[in-house]
């Protein structure tokens, strides 16, 4: 059946899909079609979509409706999916098991359901998990908590029990990495498994990723290989404050995604910064003044630099009256 579709290049497909979904324009009753490197995304309102995108009509197949956990439970449960692992945040173990069984009995491609058992803790930024249920046919050749997450065309192998990873920051990571230009030298001071490092390297940057967690560095190296950018990535297991002196004045771009304590590492960031460097500084502050503390800390640390705040960006709400924010700042001598 011919349906109105937004036509975009494959490279722009994921961003466009997210934007259309956020605007309530993506028609999820029909499949997205790929043909000759072009994506056709069905839309519900061609006039509204046509204000920003090219709209064409073409034959697209209707989805065979899958059975969801909500269909089985009679209510819409709260969970996240990371690859083939579903993540719960339930205090009631009985409810957690009920939801887990529904997820596994649904048509979702999930092999395990796990429940958060602690907050993120320690210098290695990991948390405890409870394995609630596993699929009968789940392979036993890898840990239950290990999975492959795909994001904006890249894939990340990771084990949630050994590393920190948040799928909720995908759009923010894409916002930052899309700013990178070929030939840049970039440092991710708290690199994890590489969700900033890999896309920056794919855009032609030479990237150093530093992390205290040996498992995260192991996965970072593997992810650089599997995404074809290992030749542009250096992964270092260490405290970035000890690494900074080896890269004094080297970085054209620095990512500081450690929002609870990034200010403790600003001296290292200034050591890393070249004469013209963009800093992406993440912070969590009260909504009354979400950007002021970070901006003041950066200006105090960056003696000898002109400090130009390029963007004051709210990433998400973190807690009641608290915001997770990012300051994109240019440091120039």
List the helices and strands and how they pair.
Layout: E1 2-9, H1 13-22, E2 33-35, E3 38-42, H2 46-49, E4 55-59, H3 69-73, E5 80-82, E6 85-88, H4 93-105, E7 112-116, E8 129-134, E9 146-151, E10 154-159, H5 170-177, E11 185-188, H6 197-202, E12 206-211, H7 214-226, E13 233-237, H8 240-243, E14 251-256, H9 266-272, E15 273-286, H10 292-301, E16 306-319, E17 322-332
Parallel strand pairs: 6-7, 11-12, 11-14, 12-13, 14-15
Antiparallel strand pairs: 1-3, 1-4, 2-3, 5-6, 7-8, 9-10, 15-17, 16-17
Keywords: Cytoplasm, Methyltransferase, S-adenosyl-L-methionine, Transferase, tRNA processing
Domain SAM-dependent methyltransferase TRM5/TYW2-type: 79-333
Pfam families: TRM5-TYW2_MTfase, Trm5_N, TYW2_N_2
Summarize the model shown.
The chain has 333 residues and is α/β, with parallel strands linked by helices.
